[in-house]
Design goal:
seven-stranded mixed sheet; D-Maltodextrin-Binding Protein, domain 2; alpha+beta; 12 strands; 2 domains; five-stranded mixed sheet; 330 residues
């Protein structure tokens, strides 16, 4: 559920798709802005490394972070961020919510920003050529851990289905599907789950998929709660450190500032991501939620409970960082 933006300097090369955005910030008083390209290097210089993804729906959370001692932006997918944090390749990341619920990950949620919805989400969608109650297998976009588990849960609770989920590279199949010499039935599977910008800009043919489910809307129907797809998180062992407190404060400050200039940001980013402007404004300004409130926390707790009840994931109780330090100067 997370194109290249104006934040990338013209003299900085952009890595291939699926590489990762890393912001590196001094934990001490800020220095002049500078751009740093980083990948797998350990954190030997006491920099706070913040990893994220670059979809249209992350602009509210990441735009302007480069003014706090700089960043370099390249594409990423949510599924890679959690392992970067746990393997000490990053300190904080905007990762899929299930990564914080996975008992194998020592991660805590930072309530400085999230990607969620309180109803339809538009960019997390199940497409099926057969009626929903006839689904037996779902080809799932590999970009998100959370969306796959949410789809599994919703099919079980709303439709009484326990489907098989198999990995599916949506980008590769979309490229194949553009070849007019290939039968559409061979280019697209019977049922598939797609997330992110490609749901809008590279959507599969509607005539092929008359049956669709917006996962955010379906969750709201089931629970009357919002759904949290991704959230800032860090290592639980770092809770209480100055690094986490200062970074959490800055992340919230960036989100609040961007909320005040949202129309300008979305107008700029819609073009960069090949979105229709009006649709992008509705998506970011009306459908999505970025602030973590009590209902969002309840939703995360309920999602964890339901995943465990259905044996989809032996989910642990979500752990939250409670921020105390003021935001450092940008």
């Amino acid at each position: 559920m997370y194109g290249q933006t104006d934040a990338v300097p013209p003299n900085v090369s952009v890595d291939p798709p699926n590489s990762v955005i890393l912001w590196e910030f001094p934990a001490s008083p800020p220095l002049n802005a500078r751009f740093i390209m980083s990948s797998d290097q350990p954190n030997t210089s006491k920099l706070t490394r913040i990893a994220a993804v670059q979809f249209l729906n992350t602009v509210t959370l990441i735009e302007g972070l480069d003014t706090w001692n700089g960043c370099s932006l390249v594409k990423a997918v949510p599924a890679k961020i959690a392992s970067m944090i746990t393997e000490n390749e990053a300190d904080i990341g905007l990762a899929s919510i299930v990564d914080a619920l996975n008992p194998q990950n020592d991660l805590a949620l930072i309530p400085s920003g999230m990607i969620g919805c309180d109803g339809p989400t538009l960019t997390v969608r199940l497409f099926s050529s057969v009626p929903i109650d006839q689904i037996t297998r779902v080809h799932a976009d590999t970009d998100s851990h959370t969306s796959v588990m949410l789809a599994d849960l919703l099919l079980r609770e709303l439709h009484g289905i326990t489907a098989e989920f198999v990995e599916f590279d949506a980008r590769e199949r979309m490229s194949i599907a553009q070849d007019r010499s290939i039968d559409p039935d061979e280019a697209w599977p019977q049922t598939l789950l797609i997330i992110g910008d490609k749901v809008v800009v590279d959507s599969p043919p509607a005539i092929r998929y008359p049956h669709q489910i917006d996962l955010g809307e379906a969750w709201h129907t089931l629970t009357n709660l919002p759904f949290v797809y991704a959230c800032w998180m860090g290592r639980a062992s770092d809770i209480g450190t100055t690094m986490i407190d200062e970074a959490a404060a800055m992340l919230e400050r960036v989100r609040l500032r961007n909320d005040q200039r949202l129309d300008w940001l979305v107008t700029r980013e819609a073009k960069a991501h090949n979105w229709p402007g009006d649709l992008a404004r509705t998506y970011i300004g009306q459908l999505l939620s970025f602030a973590v409130d009590d209902r969002a926390r309840q939703a995360v707790e309920l999602f964890a409970t339901k995943l465990k009840q259905h044996s989809i994931l032996d989910a642990k109780h979500p752990q939250w960082v409670e921020r105390s330090a003021p935001a450092p100067s940008a």
